[in-house]
Each structure stands twice: as structure tokens, then as C-alpha cells.
Amino acid sequence: MKPTVYLETTIIGYLAMRVSGILRVAANQQTTREWWDKRRHEFDLYVSRFVVNECSDGDPAAAQERLAYLEGIPLLQVPDEANSLAESLVTGVPLPKHAAVDALHISVVAVNGVEFLLTWNCKHIANPSMRPHIERICREMGYEPPVICTPQELLETDDED
User: Fold this and answer.
1) pTM (two decimals)
2) Per-residue confidence (pLDDT) for residue 161, from 0 to 100
3) What is the distance between the alpha carbons of residues 5 and 17, in angstroms, rounded to a whole number?
4) For every residue of the chain, which 3-state class applies, written as one string?
5) CA 116/CA 42 separation, integer angstroms
6) Average pLDDT of 21-40?
7) How far is 65 from 122, CA to CA, in rounded Å?
8) Taking every pair of C-alpha atoms in the chain, what is the biggest distance, in angstroms?
């Protein structure tokens, strides 16, 4: 059985967007494309309706490009427990109210038992200062937290050096 990975919206955004003129963003885009091309087949991929909703926003042509990457990727269920966990994350981490969807990404992954949450959202999700709080709250509510990481981290798990 393959390891499971949840693709948070920033991953799809980096895959679909034009190459950025900002060096750090362009490097992250390249890393994301490299992971997508070389490693994604080693994992069972998942998204949620939150990813679909976020990818659907904005310019219709850009949304269509983002949604094309989601074709064939199963949607995780969003049980009531995920909403409860998300509320606990917003208050306990704490996350700002405008980051409630970020808490939902984390909670859907935890409640569904997905191993990895892949993201470039280093402000509210892959934030090393928030990670211990996220993990503690997930465990307090009876869920094993996902490994929150960037494509760079999953790309570096490759045995080829």
C-alpha cells in the first residue's frame, strides 16, 4: 500500500501558475513540478471539497487549469468531527479567523487518517512554531496528526543522491 498524501491548494496553484518572477516562488514552483513529475505516483493522492472550491475561484481560465490537475484525485469526506477539530485548531493553535479553511485542511486530513499534508502554506499550516500546537490538539481530540511538509521534503525522501 502506498503512503497517502493530501494536496493542499497551494500545491495545485504552484503547478498551474505561470513561472513567477520572484526567485523563491519560482524555485518552489520548480520543486513542486519536480515532485509532481517524479514522485507523485509513489503516493495515493487526496484532496477535499475545500481544495476544489479554492481552485475554482478567480479567473475562469486559471481555475480551469487548476481544476485539470485535480481530475481523478479522490475527495476526502468532511465528517462533523473534522469541523469540530477545525474549530479547536482555530482557537487552540491559535489560527486567525481568516485561516479557518487552513484549519479545515488539517482537520480533514487528520480525521481521514491521511499520512502527509503537502503544502506551501508556511504561514498557517507548515509553520514550525505552530506545528507542536497542531499536533497536540489533534492528539487531544483522538487523531494522529499528519506529517505536514512541503514538496521539497517529500522530494528529498528519494533514495537517489
Assistant:
1) 0.94
2) 46
3) 21
4) CCCEEEECHHHHHHHHCCCCCCHHHHHHHHHHHHHHHHCHHHCEEEECHHHHHHHHCCCHHHHHHHHHHHCCCCECCCCHHHHHHHHHHHHHCCCCHHHHHHHHHHHHHHHCCCCEEECCCCCCCCCCCCHHHHHHHHHHCCCCCCEEECHHHHHCCCCCC
5) 13
6) 97
7) 24
8) 44
